[in-house]
């Protein structure tokens, strides 16, 4: 059964004849009509403000009573009244209820928040796809916590470690990554975020789109494509530079390592995470020495030999096969 769009519009605008209203009512009872109604409901709900929902639910988790109030409130909204009244008048209540529950399940309005957590051990990597289509590549020693159903007005996850995000664009529903000291808000973009809890500095490298950083002091730091940001947890300051290239920070995604005038202490942290190994430092003054190195070696022993070539230090494997001793070269 097919029906002309002009007839549907006239009926929904209370301008159709009784015969047209009956025709639309029969059509809304078909599978095609129900799909049309669901699409219309989704589009209308996408225009709601967070204030609307808070007024209806009083800021609490919706109960059965609040769900009924939610539906009743939709009837009172002028822009949505015609669609909902058409559904209420033309369809049995059971169909209206099923449509409402379909929408609620789709956007997670009435669902109790349930979280999932993924942890990647040292030496490993993982890629996951979230329910909105966002892909996240997780580096070693990283934990990502996310809701099984995103809320109506935002998509928020928590990160400890390093990850590369390719965020699915959804207008009006920003994607927020929360770290203990910095929040990153986007709508649709690609970027690398490094925020290990043991590191003083948080790094953000933006490949595409734009993001907004928000520190614990509520200061906002907008970023544009090609920029990198370094946020100091202790000082609460953020330095943003436009380098045009973010490859060095994202080298881990291709099993590579790239350091530019990086302190040995930072290099060792990366090696311990990437290769699930451990280092013993015999002289703490070595930790502040800076080195530049780029390598795509996959074996930690090969990486250390490359590092020895550009430094005055040497690495010796201890009795524990997974531990190296770091000493000055004699």
Write the layout of secondary structure elements.
Layout: H1 5-12, H2 18-28, H3 31-45, H4 50-57, H5 64-76, H6 78-90, H7 93-107, E1 115-120, E2 126-129, E3 135-138, E4 142-147, E5 155-166, E6 175-178, E7 182-186, E8 190-195, E9 201-208, E10 211-215, E11 220-223, E12 227-232, E13 237-242, E14 257-263, H8 264-275, E15 278-281, E16 290-295, H9 300-309, E17 313-317, E18 323-328
Parallel strand pairs: 5-6, 15-18
Antiparallel strand pairs: 1-4, 2-3, 3-5, 4-5, 5-8, 6-7, 7-10, 8-9, 9-12, 10-11, 12-13, 14-16, 17-18
How would you characterize this protein structure?
- This protein has 330 residues and is α+β, with helices and mostly antiparallel strands.
- It has 9 helices and 18 strands.
- Helix 2 (18-28) crosses helix 6 and helix 3 (31-45) runs antiparallel to helix 6 (78-90).
- The termini are far apart.
- Residues 53-110 have low confidence and may be disordered.
Average residue-wise pLDDT: 77
Q: Please tally the helical runs, counting DSSP H or I stretches of 4 or more residues.
A: 9
- Strand residue content: 25-35%
> Which segments are poorly predicted (pLDDT under 50) over 5 or more consecutive residues?
53-110
Shape: elongated
List the secondary-structure elements in sequence, H or E.
HHHHHHHEEEEEEEEEEEEEEHEEHEE
Helicity range:
25-40%
Task: Give the distance, in angstroms, between the N- and C-terminal Cα atoms.
Answer: 87 Å
Rg from Cα: 27 Å
Let me know the largest β-sheet.
13 strands, mixed
Structural class: alpha+beta
**Total number of beta strands:** 18
